[in-house]
Amino acid sequence: MSDTPAPSAAALPPGADPALAGYGIDTVALHAGRHPERFHGVVNPPVYHASTFIFETVEQLIDTRHERAGGAFEQFTYGREGTPTTRALEDAVSTLEGGYRAVVTSCGLGAIAASLTAFLSAGDHLLIIDSVYGPARAFCDEFLIRFGVEVTYFDPLIGAGIRELFQPNTKVVYLESPCSLTFEVVDVPAIAAACRERGITTIMDNTWASPLCFRPLDHGVDVSLHAATKYISGHSDLMLGIAVCTEPAFIPVKKTASGSGYCGGPDDVYMALRGLRTLPIRMKRHQETATHVARWLQQRPEVARVMYPALSDDPGHALWKRDFHGASGLFGAVLQPCSPAQLAAMLDHMELFRMGYSWGGYESLVVPTWPATLRTATEWKDPGPALRLHAGLEDPDDLIRDLEKGFARLAAAA
């Protein structure tokens, strides 16, 4: 991991175990959200399959309704609002990121949609990073615009210059760092500080870093989003999203997620909790393997450049080293110009780097990407095709041999 000091775990959300204060992040990842004493000594919180919760009295039912209407969401009222299993995951991830409370949703895009619509109304203006995750861009272009929200995309490297794009009706700035597909590192503290001056809400997709490698709320962000489908799960077998919130941001996001029906299934929540317990050791291995493979790719004649901020010669390395506590296994590579047939010859027969969407699981993945088709505020100038690679938990030398065979097929197809 990075030589940046690890984040502390002193900021605990309501209901979290105060005994965790002061422990290292790896320890907190193993123990946050766990209360064996409440469940007959069972190590893991049990799975609650529940739609209905029983109230013993009319007074209790009415009090719970008032409590929910007031926005506390402390009591369990209905399955869509969450169960004790849901709360355990929310508390664990919120503890890791130093948030007030978190909101579990049905998928990462659900967390994105709930967070954006929590703070935007017709007539408002949204500033969103030009390198944003493709489905988030589609949600803005196909839904938010249709409902009267003005959307402007901005250069990922704008930093404090974001002030020049503020309008009187700007309500939200949406970030992602490193950027999807192209891996630029964003000056999150500078942008968040500019937003705070104007009372603008900042939302950031933090899936790449996981809660272990970056804590957006420590840098002024209001809502930190995760596709728990990816690193938190770690096994490519569930769909889940999480929004970690500051205290002012929690109620709007929770009410919007609940009112929109963005609830996580109980078994997926349980598996995400289980995956979270091995996140520290997995993230270390992902970074080690990605760094090893990325450095090897830099020496290949077929590769024009590698995009991975953990590399010392990456343009975003200084910002990454300043703000992050480590890196994940996801990175990019721009190939030298080649034909579609050559690219297909390389990728169609990979044995370990299989083609598939998503990432963050134990297995390695690769997909071709075309960043130029997803940019409107900035221009993508690399002439060659690009790859997005996820370094899984396989032996790094086996992954290199797989890529080496792929390059041989690419050359033979010329």
UniProtKB/TrEMBL annotation:
MF annotations from Gene Ontology: cysteine-S-conjugate beta-lyase activity; pyridoxal phosphate binding
Modified residue annotations for N6-(pyridoxal phosphate)lysine: K230
UniProt keyword terms in alphabetical order: Lyase, Pyridoxal phosphate
Catalytic activity: an S-substituted L-cysteine + H2O = a thiol + pyruvate + NH4(+); L,L-cystathionine + H2O = L-homocysteine + pyruvate + NH4(+)
Cofactor: pyridoxal 5'-phosphate
Involved pathway(s): Amino-acid biosynthesis; L-methionine biosynthesis via de novo pathway; L-homocysteine from L-cystathionine: step 1/1
Cross-referenced Pfam families: Cys_Met_Meta_PP
Recorded coiled-coil stretches: none
InterPro entries in the cross-refs: Cys/Met-Metab_PyrdxlP-dep_enz, Cys_b_lyase_bac, Cys_met_metab_PP, PyrdxlP-dep_Trfase, PyrdxlP-dep_Trfase_major, PyrdxlP-dep_Trfase_small
BP term (GO), one: transsulfuration
NCBIfam families: cysta_beta_ly_B
Homology family: Belongs to the trans-sulfuration enzymes family.
Identification of the protein by name: Cystathionine beta-lyase
Lineage: Bacteria, Pseudomonadati, Pseudomonadota, Betaproteobacteria, Rhodocyclales
